[in-house]
Amino acid sequence: MNLFHHFQTSTYQTLPLLSPAWKDAVGLAFRYEYLMHAVLCVSASHLAFLSQSMHYKTQSRKHLSCALRLFREALGQTAIEDDSDAILATSALIYYEAWSSPDALATDTPTETADARLLYQARDDQLLALATGMRHLFSSAKWSPLYRMSLFSRTVVHRPIKAIESATLSLGRDPFELECLLAGFYNQPNMISNCQTRQLPDQTISAKAQPRKSNYSDIQVEPIRFPSCAYDSYMSVAARLSILLSLLPGKEENPTIPTRENTLRSVLDLQPDLLFDVARVVYTFSLMFYENFLSMIHDNDPRALLLLYYFYRMIQSLLPKQDCWWASKRAEVMQQRLARRLWG
């Protein structure tokens, strides 16, 4: 009961996706054993992070194994519509566990050298493996008439990216500048070998920036149209990443002007209420990788890997570890392995 109590009193508050419905949804765990094991798994992982205890890591692995086994059996025996809330909650929790467990990045291939094991290997990245199924599951559920009565219906259609972009624009930080920079890497991939690209790109902050409206809506009112080519897939990721990067501290447009306070601080420092929205976009970031972009990752295309590198480095620089514990270790490991893959 210790793990369940910890989830109810602490862990659920750190899980941005499906919040604030977690408190209601967790009651379903008494009806669905696979959901109960998923709840206990993530709670144990949270306690392992807080205490650095191997005991809780072992508990997490044990409950994950049970959750996966029972979940597979349940998916083979019932229609998603019948138990949609339990299935969606379990899927989300398993995805949190994938986020929080960078151990899954390690390869078990005995013939690989120690150096090879330090490289990013897309085939070993369970987050990518789960993302396709998660995207299909949530997309299918969202547009089902039965889902309108779900505990999660309001939270799943919410699009926090608009609030984030609007906040950056209000502070003179236009993500479009960064988006253009990332587009340049697609057209000139040879630029990536430059060691300067290891640093996060600077955001120019202009006191004279003309405010514009966000390109995103508050809610998703229709199914997403998948990009049809590699460039569009790349740019769909770059556009979301540029908004996240614009949250970081920037530099003044005119270096002769004394630095303003808001250029030296991140947007989260200035508007801390955005943290939950930012964490949700981070959590769902890989869900927006479509087929062409995933192919680029699996082919070790440096353009796709650079976006991943910037993404994980942004997490390390921006998100507080205690609040976003599920992302911290993975961000650290991924940044190192992607850097080694990109620059040796």
Domain unit count: 2
Strand content: under 5%
Average residue pLDDT = 83
Multimer state: single chain
Describe the structure.
This protein is mostly helical. The protein has two domains: 1-108 and 123-152, no CATH class; 160-253 and 263-343, no CATH class. The protein contains 16 helices and two strands. The chain has helices spanning 2-9, 22-25, 33-51, 54-77, 84-100, 114-117, 126-142, 153-157, 161-170, 175-187, 230-245, 267-270, 275-284, 291-298, 302-318, 325-343; strands spanning 204-205, 251-252. The protein has a two-stranded parallel sheet with strand order 1-2. α11 (230-245) links the parallel β1 (204-205) and β2. The radius of gyration is 20 Å and the shape is globular. It starts with a helix and ends with a helix.
How are the SSEs ordered, and which strands pair?
Elements: H1 2-9, H2 22-25, H3 33-51, H4 54-77, H5 84-100, H6 114-117, H7 126-142, H8 153-157, H9 161-170, H10 175-187, E1 204-205, H11 230-245, E2 251-252, H12 267-270, H13 275-284, H14 291-298, H15 302-318, H16 325-343
Parallel strand pairs: 1-2
Helix pairs in contact: 1-3, 3-4, 3-5, 4-5, 5-7, 5-16, 10-11, 11-14, 11-15, 14-15, 15-16
Distinctive features:
344 residues, Fun_TF, mainly alpha, Zn2-C6_fungal_TF, 16 helices, globular, DNA-binding transcription factor activity, RNA polymerase II-specific
Summarize the structure.
InterPro entries: Fun_TF, Zn2-C6_fungal_TF. The chain is built from 16 helices and two strands. It is mostly helical.
